[in-house]
Amino acid sequence: MLSYRHGFHAGNFADVLKHLVQVEILAHMLKKDKAFDYIDTHAGAGLYRLGTEMAAKNQEYQTGIGHLLPDTGQWPEMACYLNAVKAHNPDAQLQFYPGSPAIAADLLRPYDRGWLFELHPADSEHLRKNFRERKQFIVRQQDGFRGLSALLPSQSRRAFVLIDPPYEMKADYQRVVEALKLIHRKMSTATVAIWYPVVDRKRIEQLQRQIVATGIRRIVQFELGIKKDSAGHGMTSSGIIVLNPPWTLTETMGALLPRLAEEISEDGGVHYRCETLVPE
User: Is the entire prediction scored with pTM above 0.85?
Assistant: First the structure.
């Protein structure tokens, strides 16, 4: 089933969390001169025009990046992320939102390498067009879960893997656990970020238990929400679980998330999480 299109959700509060963490991890990896591989298992189209019928239908970007731009200087700790968005909107009007591949492309050096997987035919074609001039990026119309194994361990011996499936199939929850175990087995030093939606809290608690049960160490968890958990339809929060995080990541997110959660809240509450899921 390939019904999910990220264009409907580009720039929403879940993207803000995901891309904040992505930028923090990339910035940390860039501190070393040594090359690394960036692997995006569910890359989407790469770049999204917010004026399209798809993005305009629900205007989800208003729940996320719409709160933060135009930037008046109140978010200095998010400067790298906000600059990445502003780079695609040079006239200061919010018209485009960069997905994780576009953000990575703006930050990676010529000697780093990117691997972008997208199975949806239309989004894969858009991705290929968006990256046709980026020779260091390889675009594959393939299931990213299946493509991981052949890339690890990476030739560079340094890697950041971003896993953010749509979870339109329940099996995706189990597949992210299996992917985490595969990555750790083949390249235990890789940094892995797994994004998830909070629609059913019990399912997320089960995912947490499964990840803890792997025995893998050094895992942290962050969440950002617009309203409290609900049994109703729709995503109230989203989260990201990181294996081998930069040592500064928890401190940075711990300082930022309370303010950010207050800014985007739709029910007056402050909904966030910043925890060590598994210690060293």
Answer: yes
